[in-house]
Write a structure and sequence with these properties.
This protein has 14 helices and no strands. The protein has helices at residues 17-28, 31-58, 67-88, 103-127, 133-139, 143-154, 161-179, 186-212, 217-238, 242-275, 278-298, 306-327, 332-340, 346-362.
C-alpha cells in the first residue's frame, strides 16, 4: 500500500529475542508516517465537523432544505477550484502528464466512482431532514466494517479471524447505538445507509484508483469532480423545485463559503486515502464522529440515551483495538487474540511463549 511501509523482521547483531520483536514493531510503522497521518486526520476531523454542522444548519426547512441542490453547489465549487488551481499552479498536479493517452481508461474507473460519490453526498445531506446529527454519527460507526468488506472484495485488504472478531465487536456497539434511538425514523435510516454505502464504496474504489493509476490527490479530484457534477446535475434536474432558485438568491452568501469548505474536505480526503489508506480515513472519521456526538449533546442539546452511549463506547473500544492491530501487528495483545481465536498454529504458540518468557525475565 503506497505510503505504508513493509514490516521488517531483521535485527541487528547482539539483539535478544525481545529486542528483535520490539525492533520489528517499531520499524513496522515509522514515527514520521504516524505523525503525518495524525496531522492529516486532525485536519480532516476539523473540516468535516464544521461542514457537518454547517450543512445541518442550511438544511433547516426555513433556510435551504434541498439536499440535491446543496450537493451540486459543493461539487460545482470543487470543479471550479480544481481547474483554477491547475491553471495557476500545474505543479500541484504531478500525475497529470501520466494521464496523457489514458483518458478512456480513466473514464472507465471514474464513472462508477462519480456515481458512488454523488450517491454518498446527496443521501448524506438528505438524511439531515429526518435524523439528528448524533444518530447519524452512530450509524457511521459501521463504516469501518463496510470499507474492510469492500476492500477484501477488491483485493486490497486481507481477511483474518482476528479482524472479523474486532469488526463484529464494532458492529455490535453500532447496533446498540442505533437501536437505542428514541425517535427512530425508517426513512432517515435507509437514506443514511445508502449514503454510507456510497461513501465507503467511493473510498475503497478511490484507494484502488490512486494505487493502480498512480494519481496524486489533486489530479484525482480534478478527474472525479466533472463526472460527479454531471450526475448530480441530472439528479437535481429530476427533483427541481422553483423554490430552490428563490432560496438560492437569498442564501448564496452563506452557501458560497459552505461550498468552498466542501472543496477543502474533498481534497483532504483524497490526500488521506493516498498517503495513509482507506481504513485510516474511516478510522479518523470515527474519531470525528465522537467529537460531533459530544458537541451535539453538550452544545446543541440533542437527545441521546444511555444505551446509545454504551454502544458508542463499545465501538470506540473496538476501534482502539483495531488501530493497535494495525500499528503493532506482532504485539503480545494481538498475538493473544489470534491464539484465542485459533488463528496462530501450535508451533507459533510455542515461539510466542518463549518470547513472552524472555520478556518477563528481562523485566
Amino acid at each position: 500500500m503506497p505510503g505504508q511501509p513493509v514490516l521488517t523482521t531483521g535485527a541487528k547483531p547482539g539483539q535478544t529475542g525481545t529486542a528483535q520483536e520490539d525492533a520489528s514493531d517499531s520499524a513496522g510503522v515509522p514515527a514520521s508516517y504516524i505523525f503525518k497521518c495524525i496531522g492529516l486526520c486532525s485536519l480532516y476531523i476539523l473540516i468535516s465537523a464544521i461542514l457537518i454542522e454547517y450543512n445541518k444548519y442550511l438544511m433547516h426547512k426555513d433556510r435551504f432544505p434541498f439536499a440535491m441542490a446543496l450537493t451540486t453547489c459543493h461539487m460545482s465549487m470543487t470543479l471550479f477550484w480544481s481547474y483554477l488551481l491547475y491553471w495557476i499552479a500545474p505543479s500541484l498536479y504531478s500525475a497529470m502528464p501520466r494521464t496523457e493517452g489514458r483518458r478512456p481508461e480513466l473514464l472507465r474507473w471514474f464513472v462508477p466512482l462519480g456515481c458512488l460519490f454523488a450517491l454518498g453526498l446527496a443521501c448524506s445531506n438528505k438524511a439531515y431532514l429526518y435524523c439528528n446529527v448524533a444518530f447519524l454519527q452512530f450509524m457511521k460507526e459501521a463504516n469501518v466494517a463496510l470499507v474492510f468488506g469492500l476492500g477484501v472484495f477488491v483485493g486490497i485488504q486481507e481477511c483474518s479471524r482476528s479482524k472479523l472478531f474486532v469488526l463484529a465487536w464494532i458492529l455490535l456497539g453500532a447496533f446498540m447505538a442505533v437501536h437505542g434511538q428514541v425517535e427512530f425514523v425508517w426513512v432517515g435510516f435507509l437514506v443514511q445507509a445508502l449514503s454510507q454505502l456510497g461513501e465507503c464504496g467511493k473510498t475503497v474504489l478511490g484507494e484502488k484508483i490512486m494505487q493502480g493509476l498512480k494519481l496524486d490527490p489533486m489530479t484525482y479530484t480534478m478527474f472525479m469532480s466533472p463526472i460527479c457534477l454531471s450526475i448530480l446535475i441530472v439528479m437535481t434536474g429530476a427533483t427541481w423545485e422553483h423554490e430552490v432558485f428563490v432560496r438560492l438568491k437569498v442564501w448564496w452568501p452563506v452557501l458560497l463559503p459552505n461550498a468552498c469548505l466542501a472543496f477543502l474536505l474533498n481534497v483532504t480526503v483524497a490526500v488521506i486515502i493516498k498517503e495513509c489508506s482507506a481504513i485510516t480515513f474511516i478510522l479518523s472519521g470515527l474519531v470525528k464522529d465522537m467529537v460531533i456526538v459530544l458537541a451535539s449533546v453538550y452544545l446543541f442539546n440533542e437527545t441521546v440515551v444511555r444505551q446509545q452511549l454504551m454502544g458508542f463506547a463499545i465501538c470506540l473500544a473496538g476501534i482502539v483495538l483495531w488501530s493497535h492491530m494495525r500499528v503493532h501487528p506482532h504485539s503480545a495483545l494481538v498475538r493473544s487474540v489470534q491464539i484465542g481465536l485459533g488463528e496462530i498454529r501450535q508451533s507459533e504458540k510455542a515461539e510466542l511463549s518463549q518470547l513472552l518468557e524472555k520478556k518477563s525475565q528481562v523485566v
